[in-house]
Amino acid sequence: MATETFTFVENVKVSDLAFGCGNDNHFFEDGFGGLMGMGRGLLSLVSQLNESTFFYCLPSIDEDTEKTGTLFLGSVPNFSIGNAITKTTYLVKNELYPSFYYVSLYEISVGDVD
């Protein structure tokens, strides 16, 4: 573990961010760039930046594997990708596992069957 000054877009610098590096990452595919903690724990990136909201857009697993995701910290941006409309949901806290994120599940549908 160490701390360092990180520089984000628009030259925003944040001092004393804790981070760690691994040297035996053989469980991951070639080209693995690293890990970033996004949980609710004290050392996660969102906790250290004191951000209560973030938006993580994952690329489709069915399309080009060269595409990457996009991460926004802070307010959720208002945009669409092609004809797709972005969707958001509130996350629920679980007192037994406070570092994790949960969503409330009301219904599951497969095709026309609920």
Give a summary of the structure in a few sentences:
The protein is mainly β.
Distance between the termini: 48 Å
Low-confidence stretches: none
- Give the fraction of residues assigned to helices: under 10%
Order of helices and strands: EEHEEEE
Choose one word for the global shape. globular
Strand order of the main beta sheet, please?
Answer: 1-2
What is the number of beta strands? 6
Structural class: mainly beta
Beta strand %? 15-25%
Measured on Cα atoms, how large is the radius of gyration? 17 Å
Mean pLDDT, nearest integer?
Answer: 79
Counted by DSSP, the helix tally is 1
How does the major sheet shape up?
2 strands, antiparallel
Describe this structure in words.
- This is Peptidase S59 domain-containing protein.
- The protein is mainly β and 114 residues long.
- It has one helix and six strands.
- The strands form three sheets. The chain has a two-stranded antiparallel ribbon. The protein has a two-stranded antiparallel ribbon with strand order 3-4. A two-stranded antiparallel ribbon has the order 5-6.
- It is globular.
- The protein starts with a strand and ends in a 29-residue tail after the last strand.
